[in-house]
Amino acid sequence: MSHSQTDHIKIFDTTLRDGEQSPGASMTLDEKLKIAEVLEAMKVDVIEAGFAIASNGDFECVKKISEQVKDSTVCSLARAALGDIDRAAEALKPARSPRIHTFIATSPLHMKVKLQMEPAAVLEAIHHSVSHARRFVDDVEWSAEDATRTDLDFLCKAVDTAIKAGATTINLPDTVGYGVPEEYAAMFKHVIENVVNSDKAIFSTHCHNDLGLAVANSLAAVNAGARQVECTINGIGERAGNAAMEEIAMAIKTRSDIMPVTTKIETTEIMRASRLVSTVTGFAVQNNKAIVGANAFAHESGIHQDGVLKNAETYEIMTPESVGLSRSVLVMGKHSGRHAFADKLKELGYELGDNAFQECFKRFKALGDRKKNIYDEDIIALVDDEVATAENKIQVMSLNTYTSSDGRAFSDVTLSIDGKDRKTVVYGAGPVDAAFNAIKALIGFYPHLQLFQVHAVTAGTDAQAECTVRLEDDGYLVNGQGAHEDTVTAAARAYVAAVNKLIVKKEKRAPGHRVDSVQKTG
Ligand code: KIV
Ligand code: ZN
């Protein structure tokens, strides 16, 4: 594999592994499967589905994603331990294109303090782990954790050992987000030039964003010969996060004049992926975030607006459509019929069963009565909410809130619990507080609220609200989402969605977001 032969940059998405390691970003199996589906639709080359040995939940995720995904390579992380690698191989068995990703730290600090291993023993562990992984799969990635603080001569020895043992991808991570572009690029150049067999592997970048340089460092590494970039949707990940996939993909696409490389990423899927990850994790995307922030394509000043109206290129270096953002064109209204609604769902990529379709259509009509213009974003929020909550044991049947300007409120809530309607009226310090209190009184347990977040799906005071609620109970951490044209109802639906997840987790007694047996790594 000579680096000059190819200009294709593989995109390795680690939203489901490194991304999920963001504190509070727990995702259920169903949510991970949904994200994996979108990643595949985006034509991501490699999906890192989890860390199979970390917990039974992680194992199950890697296995189920391996069963579901057909076009992308599916990967599991494993430490340099035979048991880890066996577990990864087991979980990856159903995958059409499996990859084992094994790693060990190579910096003096990590080897001495964390691993308590001599450098020679680390080289031996690299040899054993990579050769063991090659017994199961042909596609083995090896990572030098904390590469940017590793002695360069030792890094070359470690890479040489990994390639000789059969590693086909060599990843040199900036684990602690310490590197700067020139230095990171120089490290790649040095290793590629000094390791005799470097042309037998693809070199990969993996950057954390502690200094806000993750994307810049990744692109510098590409310039120096890296042909795989590891990244996450919205840049979620440990601490300040990982390099953001949407930024890497759009930078490469927009500046092809100076970066003669391409990715396979279907960039029109970017907004869908961003919204899904934000909703599932409860991590809001900041308004001024590049590519996917609410203001990324908004023009406030008169001069800019005038320029854009005359020619969008005056202030836009890429089009909103290229990242999957419609220019909020009116799509439907309350007079749109069943047929038009079915066509719209098809266009948005939904295939609903009969019951789900009827329910969504009912809600669409109700929304049309209250909201003049209905956009794609409205329909996506409504259908996602309906599909996610339809099977739940507990459902919100009705909710009325009464508020007064002195801050007091009470909420009259009816829930269906196991098919039976139960109703109560409870006071609170505001409408949302009252609704949550009523729900707690009805379900009979009192989860701890860790996060409550609301965002408007579209512009305008009649916009639907999309809420995320994070609850903790008995060591389990879950996120629930809900959407509705009434903000308090959206909040209640999100709360109840989270409660349903808690109940499932407790019934299964599956370990929550906690990692019982393994210390996860960034
Ligand atoms: O940041 C890091 O070093 C990692 C490795 C496990 C690749 O996530
Ligand atoms: Zn990492």
Question: Topology of this protein?
Answer:
Elements: E1 10-13, H1 29-41, E2 46-50, H2 56-68, E3 73-79, H3 82-92, E4 98-105, H4 108-115, H5 119-134, E5 140-145, H6 152-165, E6 169-174, H7 181-194, E7 202-207, H8 214-223, E8 228-231, H9 245-254, H10 270-281, H11 302-310, H12 338-347, H13 354-370, H14 376-389, E9 394-403, E10 409-417, E11 420-428, H15 431-443, E12 448-456, E13 465-473, E14 476-484, H16 487-508
Parallel strand pairs: 1-2, 1-8, 2-3, 3-4, 4-5, 5-6, 6-7, 7-8
Antiparallel strand pairs: 9-10, 10-11, 12-13, 13-14
This protein binds 3-methyl-2-oxobutanoic acid and zinc ion (ZN).
Uncertain residue segments: 1-5, 510-519
The CATH topology annotation of the largest domain reads as TIM Barrel
Give the CATH architecture of the largest domain. Alpha-Beta Barrel
Tally of separate domains:
4
What small molecules are bound in this structure? 3-methyl-2-oxobutanoic acid, zinc ion
Approximate strand percentage: 15-25%
From N to C, what is the helix and strand string?
A: EHEHEHEHHEHEHEHEHHHHHHEEEHEEEH
What does this structure look like?
- The protein is α/β, with parallel strands linked by helices.
- The protein has four domains: 5-281, Aldolase class I (TIM Barrel), CATH 3.20.20; 297-324, no CATH class; 328-387; 392-508, Double Stranded RNA Binding Domain (2-Layer Sandwich), CATH 3.30.160.270.
- It contains 16 helices and 14 strands.
- It has helices at 29-41, 56-68, 82-92, 108-115, 119-134, 152-165, 181-194, 214-223, 245-254, 270-281, 302-310, 338-347, 354-370, 376-389, 431-443, 487-508, and strands at residues 10-13, 46-50, 73-79, 98-105, 140-145, 169-174, 202-207, 228-231, 394-403, 409-417, 420-428, 448-456, 465-473, 476-484.
- The strands form three sheets. It has an eight-stranded parallel barrel, surrounded by nine helices. The chain has a three-stranded antiparallel beta sheet with strand order 9-10-11. Strands 12-13-14 form a three-stranded antiparallel beta sheet.
- α2 (56-68) packs parallel to α3, α3 runs parallel beside α5 (119-134) and α13 packs across α14.
- 48% of the residues are buried.
- Bound molecules: 3-methyl-2-oxobutanoic acid (KIV) and zinc ion.
- Zinc ion (ZN) is lined by residues 18, 173, 175, 206, 208, 522.
